[in-house]
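Something for you to look into today, if you have time. What I am after is a single protein written out in full by you. I want to see for myself how the chain folds. Could you add the entry underneath, on a fresh line?
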Amino acid sequence: MIRKFHHDDTLNIVRVWELAMKDYYPDIPVETLESCKKDIVYRYLPHVETWIYELDSTSVGFISIYERAIRALFVLPTHQRTGIGTQLIEHVKAIKGPPLTREVLTRSMKTMAFYRNCGFTPTKEGICPELAEPTITYVVK
């Protein structure tokens, strides 16, 4: 079930994010994760529209949107490749309509392949300021 984020979901969202980040980027420094967690709670979540994917009353994934940009899409590693991420994108497309954009780190081949499989195409390169790593912005129309 997909539902709107409530403030009470914050700890669950952070847990999903942290487990997914550790799975995709096992070499990410602990200090970076801790700093990003604080940013998520205090600087990020209050300003985005977030949707939760629940199974048996447990949050297993979420998507956050700011205007027409997907700012976050994370699914627990144990639930990846089951269609949850795609369903979250389709949900947001139905609400917001295309175009939607998403900036991803270039070192994550799985993430780039996922967005291409969802119909996104690369549009520009950039740098992630928090991690100082190259990114690619994708768009779906």
Observations:
- The first helix runs from residue 10 to 24.
- Strands lie at 2-4, 49-55, 58-66, 69-75, 100-105, 121-128, 133-140.
- The two ends are 25 Å apart (CA to CA).
